[in-house]
Amino acid sequence: MKIGMVGLGKMGGNMTKKLLKNNHEIVVFDVNHKKVEEYKEMGAIPSESLKNLTNKLESNKKVVWVMVPAGNIVNKTVLELSNYLDKGDIIIDGGNSNYKDTVKLAKELEQKDIDFLDVGTSGGVWGLKEGYCLMVGGPKRAYETVREVLKDLAPQDGYNYIGKSGAGHFVKMVHNGIEYAMMESYAEGFEILKSKDEFDIDLGGVADLWNHGGVIRSWLLELTADSLKENPNLDGIKDYVEDSGEGRWTVLESIEQEVPASVIALSLFKRYRSRQDHSFSAKILAAMRNSFGGHEVKGE
């Protein structure tokens, strides 16, 4: 199948490579023209602009996959693309957009009779080798049109139609919220293991062991095992944890729906705590303990 790919970063670039290996024709565009030239050498068809990209696609049913950072850049890119497309053409947003933004954008494109698919994409930098888990929302007819592409990007049974516009990004949002909680749980467990000096536990070995029959085995644990084997004390890694938005949105959604999500919420707040050089709230706690119980206060 011939499709356009806008955005050649870690995700979009690897997805392009995977599709090229599966004999799809990919017209590529990126604001970094060096990236376009790089993928031209791999067999992709280069383009100089979004308009130029759409001109190089087949006229009967054009498909453009957008892999750019969530937010205004998605809206800007998608709306500009819609100016160069016709009735029945398809735009796919495979990034981590907020599902509410997706619903609004889908309605705008519907006025132009352009189908919009929101594809929640999981797999990270390993997707090129392992395949991507694809959660698809939007018009069912558009899903059927691009099914061949989805199949070649995903592992077996790794893609599915979720529901109407926004559903794909909504499911991916909750997926990432769960991921936050799983990561925090692993992190706390390994800190407990490491702090038990008397046993001198090989953390990488334990992580590897747990992945062979343990009920907490997972791909995240495999990656943890690899990291700990390579760098047991994680030297050179600052204890600062960023978040890319989906965990926040999941917590906000739980509040709006009045559905308790205490573990996911706490895992998000733990990430915020990691970014503080000093915690005033911890100072308040120490002061209170000293005031009511005479407990020792540590000096700075």
How is this fold's topology laid out?
Blueprint: E1 2-6, H1 10-21, E2 25-29, H2 33-40, E3 45-46, H3 50-55, E4 63-66, H4 72-82, E5 90-93, H5 99-110, E6 115-122, H6 127-130, E7 133-137, H7 140-145, H8 147-153, E8 159-163, H9 167-195, H10 203-210, H11 219-230, H12 246-257, H13 262-274, H14 280-293
Parallel strand pairs: 1-2, 1-4, 2-3, 4-5, 5-6, 7-8
Antiparallel strand pairs: 6-7
Description:
The chain is of the alpha/beta class. 51% of the residues lie in helices and 13% in strands. The protein has helices at 10-21, 33-40, 50-55, 72-82, 99-110, 127-130, 140-145, 147-153, 167-195, 203-210, 219-230, 246-257, 262-274, 280-293, and strands spanning 2-6, 25-29, 45-46, 63-66, 90-93, 115-122, 133-137, 159-163. An 8-stranded mixed sheet has the order 3-2-1-4-5-6-7-8, with helices on both faces. Strand 1, helix 1 and strand 2 (25-29) form a beta-alpha-beta unit. It is elongated, with a radius of gyration of 23 Å. The relative contact order is 0.08. The model has no long low-confidence stretch (mean pLDDT 95).
